[in-house]
Amino acid sequence: MSELEQIKKSKRSWGIGAAICGAAFAVSFLAGLLGTVIGMVGAFNVLEKSGEADPAELANQISFAMLTTLWGSLFAGAALICAIIALVVFLVKGKRLKAFDGSPQ
């Protein structure tokens, strides 16, 4: 395989990696938000059932909401960093490819 073909293959792989990391960012962020909504709905259901707050059950539901937000944000942050790195490498490979064969990429 020639160097030009290796650069093209590598660029394509980094582009796919950037897309996968971008999708992982969106999914993890939305999963965290969904968990937050589910936990808060559960907390409000606890209030609705009894008319008063059972502190232990209320704390359990709010804890669920906060933990899913935390984990969703952590995974989203990691995926975002991954996507940025992959995108930068993808763009650098494109510039290298353009310089190598003189074609617009």
Describe how the helices and strands are arranged.
Elements: H1 3-50, H2 55-101
Quick rundown:
By secondary structure, the protein is an all-alpha fold. 90% of the residues lie in helices and 0% in strands.
Describe the structure.
There is one protein chain. With 105 residues, the protein is an all-alpha fold. The chain has one domain. It is 90% helix and 0% strand. It has 2 helices and no strands. The longest helix is centred in the first third of the chain and has 48 residues, at 3-50. The protein is rod-shaped, with a radius of gyration of 23 Å. The two termini are 20 Å apart.
Could you list some keywords that capture this structure?
105 residues, mainly alpha, 90% helix
Overall number of strands: 0
Order of helices and strands: HH
- The portion of residues forming beta strands comes to under 5%
Q: Provide mean pLDDT, rounded.
A: 88
Structural class: mainly alpha
Radius of gyration based on Cα positions = 23 Å
Termini gap? 20 Å
Tally of contiguous helical segments: 2
- Helical residue percent? over 70%
Low-confidence stretches: none
Major sheet summary line: none
Write down the domain tally: 1
Using the alpha-carbon principal axes, give the shape: rod-shaped
